């Protein structure tokens, strides 16, 4: 199996090194990732300037992994990577330093890379974990990352998955996306030069529903959500066709 790995935290993130190390047990791994952090960039692509590619080895004991950094977004990295490595079987994105649960899927650069893979006809898996006061313990997560990959690699169908690891997982759960309102608060502040600035924060307003991704991670389960690219609201489509015929 040939595996392409990217992320949105950038090539120097410990999360991508951890993922490359674990994934290399399953097949031939190539890393292609943004040269700087691209978190919360969503599915942005670079179309008004060229992209450049620089060798940027991820080194751990005899890894033999080819790694590249790109002056672009996570979606750019997948587009470029799947062009250069045309036989890619699966794209992995992560492990993101921060959760990508519920509504944050709309902003996530980590998930966008996996979405880009599926748009190009390649299986895509996004992997994330929360960051507390300390760095994530990737050594402790490794057995769960390996178990999740083994599970998802069994299904050869074109698919998109969003995976989130709690800090200390007890098991795996299939979940659906939690769709609850969040506050999207703007917090004003002042910079050291006395100029006004603003922070954008996202805090969910309601508790998570059982069976959802947020609920699973809050209860120490690895959350695995199969996603689709078709955003059509089928129920609403049937309804508007009936009540508002055109
Ligand atoms: Mn990130």
Number of distinct beta strands: 11
> What is the CATH third-level topology name?
Stationary-phase Survival Protein Sure Homolog, Chain: A
Using the coordinates above, name the CATH class. Answer: Alpha Beta
The helix fraction, in percent, is: 25-40%
Ligand names = manganese (II) ion
* Average residue-wise pLDDT: 95
Spans of at least 5 consecutive residues whose pLDDT stays below 50 are none
Strand order of the largest sheet: 3-4-2-1-5-6-7-11-8
Tally of structural domains: 1
Class from secondary-structure proportions? alpha/beta
CATH-level-2 architecture: 3-Layer(aba) Sandwich
Strand content: 15-25%
Gyration radius over CA: 19 Å
What would CATH call the homologous superfamily?
Survival protein SurE-like phosphatase/nucleotidase
Number of helices: 6
- N-to-C SSE series? EHEEEHEHEHEEEEHEH
Largest sheet: 9 strands, mixed
The separation of the N and C termini measures: 49 Å
Pfam families: SurE (PF01975)
GO molecular function: 3'-nucleotidase activity; 5'-nucleotidase activity; exopolyphosphatase activity; metal ion binding; nucleotide binding
Cofactor: a divalent metal cation
GO cellular component, one term: cytoplasm
